[in-house]
Amino acid sequence: MNEIYHIPAMLRETIQGLNIQPNGLYVDVTFGGGGHSRAILEAVLKSSEVQEFRGGKLYSFDQDMDAYHNAMEGVNAEVFNNNEHWQFVHSNFRYLRNFMDYYGVEQIDGLLADLGVSFHHFDCPERGFSFRYSAPLDMRMNQTGGKTAADILNTYSEEELARVLYIYGELKTAKPLAKRIIKTRETNPIARTEDLVSIVLGKKVQEFRSSGVQEFRGSGVQEVRGSGVQEFRGSGVQELDVPAAAKKDMAKVFQALRIEVNDEMGALREMLLAAKDLLKPGGRIAILTYHSLEDRIVKNFLRSGNLEGTIEKDFYGNILTPFKVLEKGLTASAEEVEQNPRARSAKLRVAEKIESNK
């Protein structure tokens, strides 16, 4: 198992924002590599030392069983193995309310959501999350079922594809790209990342291969470059070298498909509503966002207490909301970004539950 499954962004700031309480009940709805969960668990147990009864507990959600196996075998294994204060929940966090009911938890002291995709998913070629590698177009966080990115590309209508690309990828070229996808699949199914890359770049896969191939015996590794395909012996990983000028749009296309495959926005909305009900007065919610779509939802929800972001006021003009916003979008320090470039786009929002005045 890769030791660098994921590097948690703004770890210190997030834990401080949660304001861990002795014997508290906490939920990490995005376990990933376990970095945030480990820090929460250690803080819960340390704070519980002042109490005679050490009843603190952490529930960690992840729909990808790779995360659980990494916890059991990776660098954090000694923290999670046989720890009675920790419970792994193999589920999408949209079912937060269901599982808390199952475990008999009525209220929690804090919830963390790190909405960034784990390094593991981007760096694991066969999962199909990245345009860096030749791989099946999968992109499912939970590989036990559900539609894949290939299913979407080969079955959605032109209008549906344009909607996904425009709303979730914020692509200005969504309509013409959707049209090219439809035209391509009429003759050839879109099955692999290189198929999609070729469509976005406006070239056929065959054209990448027509300008020259260098072959080495026993290789079987393709690296697709603007100047052709070069095959190398050894690594077993097929790398797609996308021109630098195209990487921004390519990232948007892959982001849009990933969000649609996993219904990330729908799951986020359901989780936020459940978290509002579960948090006890004084409980904290800390959320790390990584793109404008999810950040807008989180920002509006924490400000208003509803998914529409509608500000309601009482007769005297006081805002009716169950939250007191404590952190309005903290970003990572320059030092952290230098160590972990993927933290550059992270924003931390923290709010405290107050007595509802609705």
* CATH topology type of the largest domain: Rossmann fold
What's the helix count?
A: 15
What number is the mean pLDDT? 85
Calculate the terminal CA-CA distance, rounded to whole Å: 48 Å
- The number of strands is 11
Architecture of the largest domain in CATH? 3-Layer(aba) Sandwich
**Shape from CA axes?**
globular
The count of domains is 3
Percent in strands: 15-25%
The CATH homologous superfamily name of the largest domain equals Vaccinia Virus protein VP39
In the CATH hierarchy, what is the class of the largest domain?
A: Alpha Beta
Q: Quickly give the structural class.
A: alpha/beta
- Low-confidence spans: pLDDT under 50, at least 5 residues? 206-235
What is the string of SSEs from the N terminus onward?
HEHEHHEHEHHHHHHEEEEHHEHEHE
The value of Rg in angstroms is 22 Å
Order of strands side by side in the largest beta sheet?
Answer: 3-2-1-4-9-11-10
Helix content: 25-40%
The biggest sheet, with number of strands, parallel, antiparallel or mixed sense and barrel status, is: 7 strands, mixed
